[in-house]
Amino acid sequence: MFSAGAESLLRQAREIPDEELKKFCSRVSKLLQKEDVGPEAIDALQRLFLIVSATKYSRRLEQTCVDLLQTTLCSPACPEQLQLLCAAILRERSPCDSLRLSCDHVQNVRQLSLVASVLLAQGDKQQEVRSVGQHVFRVLESRQPEGPSPRPLLPVVTKVIGLAPGALQEDQTNLLSKRLVDWLRYASLQQGLAHSAGGFFSTPRGRQPGPVTEVDGAVATDFFTVLSTGQHFTEDQWLNVQAFSMLRAWLLHSGPPGGPGAPDTDDKSELEGSTLSVLSAASTASRLLPPQERLREKAFEYCQRLIEQSNRRALRKGDADLQKACLVEAVLVLDVLCRQDPSFLYRTLSCLKALHARLCGDPACVRALLPVAQFFLNHGEAAAVDTEAIYQHLFTRIPSELFHSPMLAFEFVQFCRDNLPLFGRSLGILKLSFPNLFKFLAWNGPPLTSEFVALLPSLVDAGTAVEMLHALLDLPCLTAALDLQLRLAPLHQLLQPLAGCARVVQCAEAVPTLLQAFFSAVTQFADGALTTQLALLLLERSDSLFQVPQYEARVHRVLSSQFLVLCKLHPSLVVELTKELLEFVGSGRGIHGTGSMLTSVVWAIGEYLSVSWDRRCTVEQINKFFEGLEALLFEVTQSRPSATLPKCPPQVITVLMTTLTKLASRSQDLIPRVSLFLSKMRTLAQSPATSSMHGEEDAGAVRTRATELLNLLKMPSVAQFVLTPNVEVSQPRYHCDTNTALPLALCTVSRLAEKEAGLLPG
Fold it and tell me: What SS3 state is found at 141?
């Protein structure tokens, strides 16, 4: 959307009458005929460009004005800003029958790029495209190493091969392929010099450039790419960037190899100003390949490096956005390479499989999944890769969660439409996923209508026809539901007026029993991955339940007990879900009601966050959990109850104290800290305010637990044995036989603690 000021200017430009435009063109003509063309002419040309570009239809300009625009564009003495404006205005009028431009005698590369851009905007008119291409290559071939940079001409070459693929000769194609190799692979690793104003205090030492860096700030040790960063860039580094931007189009133009060629003994580096004095044996062998094959080899190396660089954590948002764009382009280039030369396929597969796994876990990079899916669609059968899991994820989760991204919606639907002939067995997954695809249509509406008109015949069959008709008729309802979803308006809130309905209450009474049956069945076969998914779901849904009377408390009792069952089945859950558990504890969501879910989570942390259950457990993890639980305990005991922070159940407080003590016994630097906290808790539990809030019995339970834990911590080695026992201690004999270790240890600690307390002054 434009600002109000910009909208006003555009409206004025669109509504200017032809007569007024004619007068303005006369004024522009007079300004361009002056010997000294100044700021007034630049301002007038900017206004004229706005007028001709603000409408979809072509505005008629006076022929005298058009002729002067062409003359100014071709004048060697004309300032570059003026030439840019003249070229932009002439391009907006394309195609134009009265154009008399020619690039045959233009040698300045910047001016040639502007003139060529106007000529190419006319289309392939009277072989104009071929003529432009031939002249551009004559300039490239005649350019001396110390001459001006060819960078402005590279976009012209890309446009030429797009409009007329056969416009270039074989020797010209080989020439540019050689230069692209040098620009891609051998750009400098030192930053460019800053432009200095000079002066007495300017010294060469102060202007020494540093090395280029990676997006995460590390010094670059591999070759320069478009993702390398620095304060200033050299010309060969800019050529590197430009070469990558045209690489895919050039590879498609140069086509697959015609067959094995003779070694190119005359292949010399075309890189001006670079030093190629030391080359490895592999590089030397590579340079003996024909130009197109050598370019493919270097393009493969470049894309592999970009994929590695895309995995670095960027320090700036702009670099992070560039990473995503370059990742998409790198995968597309690899796809072209593998189509042109199957030998690249097996060198690429492992890299792209790992990339796909990484992208599936990063919602910020979801658009990069489409070219990866395209790659496996093109090459999965040849590489014997099962692509069904890839498309299952692509067609279900992405539309369901990211329907509100207009760019992703267009690219996704276009991907489906363009690849219908290639889907094969996966077409069934696409058909069954049409309700998710319809979310794109429901949210983005008219811009996708034509795409879906083309896509629908392939989605509908006898099995989906009835459901699809319902979905089409209810499409406005789907849009309304998605709108509610994006406003944080859960379905539970919309249905809340019916929560007291007798039929709803009856149904709610059946859910806990069914949940018990569900978990009894699923725990018989659940592996580690499924157990992790179920545990995450319990954390997520524990505070997202329909508020039917008594329903939440009953369900929480089941969920909390089953969370402990899952942890017992897979004790590594606590270490693997460190981030999610810390978020759950830090949010304080489980304090509401009886606190049974929070109690189970805190107990599981104390029980299983130990190297005896998972060797990956670290002291840093223990300290993080300790800090999170300590903050929660402080918050629930020191704050007054409110709507956002209700009164904390005493069992939550006692479990928090016990878990903190367990963690301190495993990281003994924490013992003084938890001992001080437990002393404060014991004192707090004795206060009348606490007794009145929780009741005398509950306050007494908190006080007793704090005293017991303090006594244990007075002997850290015994505390560690009691609070973090070996797995064998869970056997019944350790609790039934008074002569075995655990009861004996507890009795000893109790007697010592009582004896020490008796020696203290009253």
Answer: helix
Structure tokens at 193: 């010099």
Contact 382, 345 (CB under 8 A): yes
Q: Are 444 and 399 in contact (CB under 8 A)?
A: no
Q: Which of 461, 421, 412 lies closest to 441 in space, CA to CA?
A: 412
CA distance 110 to 250: 21
Global pTM? 0.65
DSSP conformation letters of 618-685: -HHHHHHHHHHHHHHHHHHHHSPP-SSSPPPPHHHHHHHHHHHHHHHHHSGGGHHHHHHHHHHHHHHH
* Token digits of residue 342: 């199957």
Query: From residue 2, how far is each of 6, 53, 88, 444 by CA, in Å?
Result: 6, 15, 21, 20
* N- to C-terminal Cα separation, the chain: 78
**In the structure encoding, which two tokens stand for residue 335, read together?**
């796809």
Are 616 and 660 within 8 A, CB to CB? no
Contact 695, 641 (CB under 8 A): no
pLDDT tens digit string along 476-535?
A: 888 888 888 887 867 777 788 888 888 888 888 888 888 888 888 888 888 888 899 889
Burial (CB count <10 Å: 0-12, 13-18, 19+), residue 439: buried
pLDDT tens-digit map of 33-51 = 887 777 888 888 888 888 8
The Cα-based distances of 491 to 95, 397, 499, 503, 547 in angstroms read 55, 20, 12, 18, 11
